[in-house]
Amino acid sequence: MNVLEERIIKDGIVKEGNVLKVDSFLNHQMDIQLFDDMAKEWSKRFQGKTINKILTIEASGIGIAAAVARQFNAPVVFAKKSKSINIDGEMYVAEVESFTHKTKNQVIVSKKFLSEDDHVLIVDDFLANGCALQGLISIAGDAGATVEGIGIAIEKGFQVGGQIIRNLGYQLESLAIVDAMDAETGEITFRQ
Amino acid sequence: MNVLEERIIKDGIVKEGNVLKVDSFLNHQMDIQLFDDMAKEWSKRFQGKTINKILTIEASGIGIAAAVARQFNAPVVFAKKSKSINIDGEMYVAEVESFTHKTKNQVIVSKKFLSEDDHVLIVDDFLANGCALQGLISIAGDAGATVEGIGIAIEKGFQVGGQIIRNLGYQLESLAIVDAMDAETGEITFRQ
Fold this sequence. Notes:
2 copies of one chain form a homodimer.
Chain A: H1 3-11, E1 13-15, E2 19-21, E3 29-30, H2 32-45, E4 53-57, H3 61-72, E5 76-82, E6 91-97, E7 104-110, E8 119-127, H4 131-143, E9 146-156, H5 161-167, E10 172-181, E11 188-190
Helix pairs in contact in A: 2-3
C-alpha cells in the first residue's frame, strides 16, 4: 500500500451509496505533507516526460496541483466552473454534463494560459465518471496543448471514468483505485 | 518593494473600475515559487505566534494557503461558498452579503475541522470590502477558535475592508496594499 491508500484506510469513511468521505485530509481539510508525498510519487511515475504546466479544476484540485507544481517546477492553471458565462472569445469553454445529476456545467480557462506550446499534466482529487476530467482534456485539445499525463488521487474503479480515459490512450496514474467499498463493515478494497 | 509588489508592477494589469488583473500569476494561473516567497514573508511577520491551522476560502485562496501551510507545518481548511445549503448541524455557516453585488452567500466549514483548540491564520488572495473575510472570522468565532492573524496577498487600500479588520484589532498583514490605480497610465501606487 502506498501512503495515500494507507491514509484512506486510516481516516476515510465509507458511507451508503458508494460515498467515500476523505474530507479530513484531502478535500476540505488538506494535509499538505501528504500532498507532497503524493506529488513525489507522480513525479516518479511521469519521469522522463516534459511537463511545463499543471492543469486542474477548482476547488479541491488546487491544493494537490500546488504540491505537484513544486515537483515539476511549473505553474498551475486551474479551470473555473460556471453555470453559464458570456463567451467573449477570450476563454476556452467545455460544456460537460454530469452523469449523476444530469446538470450541465461549463469548465473555462483563459486562452492566455494554455497554448500549443504547453505540455500539460492534469491533476485532480477524484475520478468517478470523469465528466470534469473530460472537460479539461477537451480544453487542452482546443488549445492545441499536449496532455502528457493525468494524475488522480482517488479513482472509483467501479465507475466508468478511468476505463474511458485509459481506452483513449492517456497515461492515467491514480494513486488509489477503489474497486469496492462496504458501508456496513467500512471495508475498502484497492486494486493491486 | 517586496517580491509580490514587484510582480504586480511587472505582470498586473489595471482595468477601468479599479480592477487589478493578476490572473497570470495569482488567481487563475498560479506561480507556486512566488507563493513560497510570500509564505516565507508571512512566516516572518507572524513569528512567535502559535498557529496550528490555516483557514482560507475556495477557490483562489487555496493555492496560497497550501504554500503557507508548509511554512507553519499545519493543515489547511478551506471554507466552501454556497448559495444556500440545508444546515444539518454539522456545519458552521456564515451568511455574508456582498457590498458590490448585494447578493447573499453562505460560507461553510465542517464542525469537525475547527474547534476551540485551534489557533488560526486566515489567508486569502484579495481584500477589498472584506465580506468573505468577515465570514471566515465569524466562523472562527463560532468554533471558539483564536484568530492569530490574517495574511492577505493584495489589499485594495482605497476600500474599507482592511481598515475595518485593523479597527477590530486583528493583526492583518497584506503583502501589497494598493492605494491607487490608474487604468489610463497603468500606474499602481502602493502604500509605504
